[in-house]
Design a protein that fits this description.
Ribosomal Protein S5, domain 2; four-stranded mixed β-sheet; 3 helices; 38% helix; globular
């Protein structure tokens, strides 16, 4: 494992930026668009209410045991917190990691998250 762990801070992943309901996840999967990256697939769907960005994470049991799945979610949550929450886009986003995420450098993960959010912003701007 070659991850350089992020430095802990007092900033948290705010609850109003979390995607929590099963129906919201389903809506993003069924109606949204996809962006493929090396270590993840990012689904996104514009929201009408302009309340900002909400992000959810799904990691299937096929990705490993609970320890590996929780580690993936923690890494993704921190990368999004550091690179995506300040975006001025109103969308729901669901991130599905690939198994290769566990062996990825955190800086690569941050870069991919940043690129994914750039793609989402451009996509949503085009569709307006």
């Amino acid at each position: 494992m070659n991850n350089l762990a992020p430095q802990p801070t007092n900033k948290r992943f705010p609850k109003n930026h979390r995607l929590l309901k099963h129906t919201d996840f389903d809506r993003v999967y069924k109606q949204g668009r996809r962006h493929f990256a090396e270590h993840m697939t990012v689904f996104h769907l514009a929201r009408e209410d302009n309340e900002g960005l909400r992000v959810g994470f799904t990691v299937s049991k096929a990705m490993g045991g609970a320890v590996q799945r929780n580690r993936m979610k923690r890494l993704l949550r921190e990368a999004v917190r550091m690179n995506g929450l300040e975006r001025s886009v109103a969308a729901d986003v669901v991130i599905n990691p690939k198994r290769s995420l566990l062996n990825a450098e955190f800086s690569d993960l941050q870069s991919q998250i940043g690129k994914a959010f750039d793609v989402i912003e451009r996509s949503l701007a085009r569709n307006k």
